[in-house]
Model the fold of this input.
Amino acid sequence: MQKPKKNNEMFSKVLKNRPKPYFQEIISKDHLTPPSVLREESCSYVGSDDVDRERYFSKKFHNLELENIWNKVWQFACREEDIPLPGDYYVYDIVDQSILIVRTEDGTIKAYYNSCLHRGTQLKPSNTCGFSKILKCPFHGWSWSLDGKLKNIPSDWDFPHVSHQEFKLPEVKSDIWGGFIFINLDKNSNSLKDFLSVLPEHFKDWDMGKRSKAAHVAKIVPCNWKFAIEAFLEGYHVSETHPQALPYTGDTNCQYDHWGPHISRMMSGLGTPSPTLKNKKIDDADVIESMQDLVSYLDGGSDKKNIHRNEKPRDFLSNSMREILTSSTGVDHEKFSTSEIIDAIQYFVFPNFIPWAGYGVPIVYRFRPNGHNPDTSIFEVILLYENNDEKKETDPGINWLEEGDSWTKAEELGGLGALFDQDEAAFRSGQLGLKASNKKGSTFSLYQESRIRHFHKTIDMYMSL
Ligand code: FES
Ligand SMILES: [Fe+2]
Done:
């Protein structure tokens, strides 16, 4: 076991050896200054031990997670615009638990256990959303009002022992941040505000409540939910898994931060080539064209051949993104800094929620176990756009891809689909390989994979390991 002083020395050396340009150096050269929160750095040594591979496939560990994590944490269930009107509902499932979230007559939001108080039937089917003025069980027809009061028992003469007062639908704790509706199955939990710690303050200039869903794509993927998340907590895999992104992605020079047990962040400078390409001749036009190929909306109206000679790729790309975002959303994007427009600024909220900050890459990821099978998980991608309209746009619904479908089938994801196909190939071989080895633990790097170490440290904390 290494001594703390040795560990800190080792970690300082790692920090010193990071390839340049650092993310901070990239954004300091932009002529539109980024907000102070992007200038913050908060990373410390989070250990060097291996992480036990059984965590990714053992049924025993899966059961412990249910008890100690999924029953205890705040989890993103749906967006406010999923249930804009009284009577709108959304069913959020987490393994065996099913939670029915409704908009009540007075516009407030309530969450209930999705289970009839008669004999348990689900009031609404799993993974559905819709509209219903009363909550009526499909089996014998008991019904409740949207605010959970028992309204009707067919043949009520046969239930003299049932008190309407006691048969209100039991509530699950819920709260809202930035248009995201969260639930918590632990009635004694701390508040959502405490749970989110620095997140609301960091996002104060990026009001997620003003955004609305433009796309929601879901798929069951062939690996444990943690293995899937971890592919989005580091930029280390880009060069091998997504080589086409290297001309425009700062990968090995990403910045990694963490605050408290629940929040971490990765910031990658885009419109700038990977340090791994330093011996290759990448000119400005290569950077621009390769990034235009990814984000299809960047193509709009710009002539690839006619790149302004004096404009640096980050300026050229962010200017064209600003223009397109302004015209497509009706929200003026002129005032936003280059970094907020172009960079990948991605936060992680333990245990499964990844909202991206800034404006140009408006993604949210969510990952959940898929029932009791630890070898698969549910991966969802949501695109959220700024919205000028007071009334939220119509919810696009969820596009569930089938096993074997390419992510590119979800055309609403533009060029991102091809990247997710590459990630999914890594999920499959990762999960199979984890089980095929006699190596007990996975070995993570100290900086580039520090968010994964931080994630497992928080898992340990919840498990009291
Ligand atoms: S189970 Fe719901 S009414 Fe009978
Ligand atoms: Fe990836």
